Amino acid sequence: MADLTLNHDQILLGDCRDVLPSLPPASVDLIFADPPYNLQLRGDLLRPNMTHVAAVDDAWDSFRDFSAYDAFTRAWLQACQRVLKDNGTMWVIGSYHNIYRVGAILQDLGFWILNDIVWIKRNPMPNFRGVRLTNAHETLIWCAKLPGQKYTFNYHALRHLNDDKQMRSDWEFPLCTGNERLRINGNRVHSTQKPEALLYRVLLASSNVGDVVLDPFFGTGTTGAVAKRLARHYIGIERDPSYVEAARGRIAAIDPPTNIAALEALPSNKRRIPRIPFGNLLEHGLLQAGQQLWFNRDPALVATLLADASLRMADGTRGSIHKLGTMLTGQPSCNGWEHWFFQAADGSLASIDLLRQALRQLSEQAPDADDYSGL
Amino acid sequence: MADLTLNHDQILLGDCRDVLPSLPPASVDLIFADPPYNLQLRGDLLRPNMTHVAAVDDAWDSFRDFSAYDAFTRAWLQACQRVLKDNGTMWVIGSYHNIYRVGAILQDLGFWILNDIVWIKRNPMPNFRGVRLTNAHETLIWCAKLPGQKYTFNYHALRHLNDDKQMRSDWEFPLCTGNERLRINGNRVHSTQKPEALLYRVLLASSNVGDVVLDPFFGTGTTGAVAKRLARHYIGIERDPSYVEAARGRIAAIDPPTNIAALEALPSNKRRIPRIPFGNLLEHGLLQAGQQLWFNRDPALVATLLADASLRMADGTRGSIHKLGTMLTGQPSCNGWEHWFFQAADGSLASIDLLRQALRQLSEQAPDADDYSGL
DNA sequence: GGAGGACGTGAATCACTGC
DNA sequence: CGCAGTGATTCACGTCCTC
Question: Is the pTM of this model over 0.90?
Fold first, then answer.
């Protein structure tokens, strides 16, 4: 995480196809890319009241044809793939004009799609001529660098963010408007500024505090702004100096978070909780060899606990809490922690999982000075 | 409209790549295609309760690699393009596994995308392992045979269908379940039967009474069933005789509409009030991680807000606004929105529900004309 | 008969660690 | 790298059954 220290939290001026090769390989944890959409607009569009619709007519969104756009897309995707860590992931946002080409090319390059996500716009521009449906969404593709790799996904953080229900692939946010929209003399600085709320969810989902987030089409720096708010590092690449200037001012004006702990406390992610083998309960004296355990409190399903933490049934069957549980339930697998009970001091049957929790608390609390004996 | 009379309202047995060349060129008004998705599933998947997930493991969804799938896709798309009238349009539905390849290839063939549409599933299957987002949508591409052609789009019909507001590109429907799902001896006949509501909207949008609608992957005939209900003609192509048999029975059981004029009388479809998860307040910067919240304004009941929108009390207790509220009140459930307060700019304690209301207003208001980026 | 709970199920690229 | 062991993981509906 520290091999790129010099470039952290910086904006590099230039075309990402030229700049990316100068970065070390496999050095960034996350990429968010908002490439040109290749809109192919033809002529001006007027509202019913004959006012002019401000279109995306920037030079950077002009390509000769699909094949030119494909070549451009392949080039920046390949350059991104090189700098992404093997366990890193990438997000790309687009509309129907370009997202099918982007998606097919990134699959061809070996990226592995994890989800596609639709950003549902609460307040999209209507279709003024009434000749199509209101174009009310954009698409994000979330992909890993390679198939079969481990990747960061803060499942529980996103679940919390969604009122303790699993986060879905349809995300509803309003457009970037109001105070959040950067303007100079009343004119918007960038024609396609993305809302910070969208980036907040992206970064929370797929990066950790201290990670390096790369945005090869940095624009006015939404990715950098949210990275700073969430205590991630960012690297921005942008070829338009006026966008770079706006982004620098924008990010500098953000107060860095004062309470990093509140950001890090994210995952009640159980995978990070240290695993406690069942045998530890014996080693710590919470259970003793020879003691009896009941399966689902059933008086007929009693096992004897052996010193090696295996269980033995009356008929001689022997195995771990999980293996015996698998046999007893007849299901393909079984988490034994949830099914075995011991006799507590008051005579009632209590779950062995309570003992695991007790042991976790025990091992997490700061030891007394007395416990540092001889170290 | 009448040049294909002999084949109207028929199901042709065979692979559409073989059958389509026998149809006259430029002879159908609309195509709806639900091709194989190329899911590439690996092992078995178990639910948390250890039951088995019924996978799509049909032979028709198996391809050697992307290149084989691309060749298949190009072949059927080309054959469809030939039989489509010059002013006709085509719909293709898919998931992230295949839709990017389909979209890129149809653009390469000269089809002109008019919209992409997301079918938001009200009741999708969850992600049981918690390793990705719930895959809660599928994508439809709606395209014309050629750029610049006139095409059928029943703008007002769809507007009526949507309570007199312009129809958007995000459509919310439940999965095809219950009585609508074809079953034999309790087993579903087809693993991917689409809901009729989806086809209803597609046909209403882009065809007229008496038009010819072609479905090259007819399956169990959802397209034909809806076409009959809406007084359109259909041509189905399907290579599995058991699907064909099921489709014939299904369509035969439908009474043809007696009052064609009544087809204009359309059901209403009110949009639900959008739910706002508490986490949205952080995503939109209305609250910040590290900030403190008070329960019922009680100075003794203070919690710290974490970046994932969970709260942490001084004693380490942690949970959502609702879960902590439940614990603090001791009642079976608790609407956290009514109980938690934040410190407002003037120092007073204000309800977080005010922030929710503010966010609703923010995202409902029409943006400035300038905020539209031509999308 | 109505309320409420149990149960089934849906296009799914669905684990990680240690030996 | 393969294999075995451990143990983490679900939401909205519709249907059927019980009370």
Answer: no
Query: CA–CA separation, B332 vs B329, rounded Å?
Result: 9
Average pLDDT over residues A225-250: 97
Domain extents for chain B? 5-264, 279-371
Q: How far is the CA of A329 from the C1' of C6 (A)?
A: 19
For residue B206, the surrounding DSSP H or E stretch is: helix B196-206
Higher pLDDT, A264 or B360: B360
d(CA A333, C1' C19) / Å: 21
pLDDT tens digits, A100-126: 999 999 999 999 999 999 999 989 999
- 8 A C-beta contact, residue B28 and residue B52: no
Whole-angstrom distance, CA of residue B224 vs CA of residue B216 = 11
Tokens of A116: 């596609």
Nucleotides of D under 7 A from a protein CB: 5-15
Burial of A348 (0-12, 13-18, 19+ CB in 10 A): exposed
Q: Please, is B342 exposed, middle or buried when counting C-beta atoms within 10 Å of its C-beta (0-12, 13-18, 19+)?
A: buried
Closest alpha carbon to C1' of D13, residue:
B123
A56 and B167 within 8 Å at the Cβ level: the answer is no
Amino acid of residue B314: A
Chain A residues lying within 8 Å of B132, measured CB to CB: 114-115, 153
Tell me which protein residue sits closest to nucleotide C8, measuring alpha carbon to C1': B51
DSSP 8-class letter at B61: G
Whether A136 sits inside 8 A of B318 (CB atoms) is: no
Is B308 within 8 Å of A158 when comparing Cβ atoms? yes
What CATH number does the domain located at B5-264 have? 3.40.50.150
B179 beta carbon to strand D: under 7 Å: yes
Angle at A44 between CA A38 and CA A50, to 5 degrees: 140
Q: B157 CA to D8 C1', in Å?
A: 49
Cα(first)–Cα(last) distance of chain A, in Å? Answer: 31
Q: Which CATH code, of 3.40.50.150, 3.30.465.60, 3.10.129.10, 3.90.1010.10, is assigned to A5-270? A: 3.40.50.150
